[in-house]
Amino acid sequence: xxxxxxxxxxxxxxxxxxxxxxxxxxxxxxxxxxxxxxxxxxxxxxxxxxxxxxxxxxxxxxxxxxxxxxxxxxxxxxx
Length: 79
Known about the structure:
Number of domains: 1
Order of helices and strands: EHEEHE
Shape: globular
Strand content: 15-25%
Strand order of the largest sheet: 2-1-3-4
Number of helices: 2
């Protein structure tokens, strides 16, 4: 079954926010829909910068939480 919904978590600077917006637009163009609220997505993308060890830790925490909360979702970390 192909993924149909996605959620993007963005950490970091305005460049990451811009990248996440562009990524969301590309996914919508491919036919996926962005989920709202606590709805379970098929794909979770965590867009983070890893300039500091604090940013690294925060990205890992969000990724681990996503895996726990949405075990059927595919989780990707980028940035």
